[in-house]
Amino acid sequence: MVVFWTIGGVNVEFSRFSPDEADALVDFLTGEEWPFHAGVQEEEAIRRRVADGVYDDDDNRTFWLVADGERAGLVRLQDLTDGTPMFDLRIRAKWRGRGLGAAALKWLTAYLFEQFPEFTRIEGNTRQDNRAMRAVFRRCGYVKESHYRDAWPSPDGPVYDSVGYAILRRDWVSGTTTLPDWDDEPANVG
């Protein structure tokens, strides 16, 4: 691995997941509470998904986020054959609030735009109440593009709104942000 980032004296590296690391993935996903992620993480289901290539195939690539030698997070890039990739980002509780989310989002954005020159945009979604991730999106140049009401069921019962963000290649290259035209509907008539 090569050190990608240093944040507050912490070396941050990204290492591609290998299917022979299924045990480590099971430990990572089942050993933490993931309050803003849908779905229950069960060992058998995770192992089946690893065997099916869900974490590493033509359409998906997964990377460990390693902070000072510890697996502090996971970045799963999805829909790589679709033209508009999405991602899942998880940071262990003890590493949250230390800048790793922003480091991971900046890294995955650069990685996707550099490795896939045909991509013109990258999308990500989070629950409306995940204020930390929403701030990370904005800080990293992503723009809110969607708000889906009652679209994110949680395991403990409530249904939350889902909020979508994206970054355009042209904005990433120029370091600017362009906002959607939210007022494009015609005025009510009759």
UniProtKB/TrEMBL annotation:
Keywords: Transferase. It holds the Pfam family Acetyltransf_3. Signal peptide: none annotated. Residues 12-170 form the N-acetyltransferase domain. The keyword Transferase applies. InterPro entries: Acyl_CoA_acyltransferase (IPR016181), GNAT_dom (IPR000182), N-acetyltransferase (IPR051531). GO terms for molecular function: acyltransferase activity, transferring groups other than amino-acyl groups. The keyword Transferase applies. This is RimJ/RimL family protein N-acetyltransferase.
